[in-house]
Write a structure and sequence with these properties.
The chain is mainly α and 58 residues long. Helix content is 62%, strand content 0%. The longest helix has 19 residues, at 14-32. The model has no long low-confidence stretch (mean pLDDT 83).
């Protein structure tokens, strides 16, 4: 059996961490929403899709 060494060997996957943060933001928004489901517009707002598109355009 192979056991990972303790301490100092943590690997961070920055993409995975960013995805986890976005999922958390969506969960928080969904729990605070008055409606049963978030609208597509609400999801885009939480994920800051409009801001990303504006940044891409320059």
């Amino acid at each position: 059996m192979h056991v990972a060494p303790v301490g100092g060997t943590a690997v961070q996957d920055h993409v995975a961490l960013a995805e986890i943060e976005l999922c958390g933001d969506l969960i928080i928004a969904a729990s605070a929403a008055r409606e049963d489901r978030l609208s597509l517009e609400s999801i885009d707002e939480v994920l800051k899709v409009a801001e990303e598109r504006a940044d891409e355009r320059g």
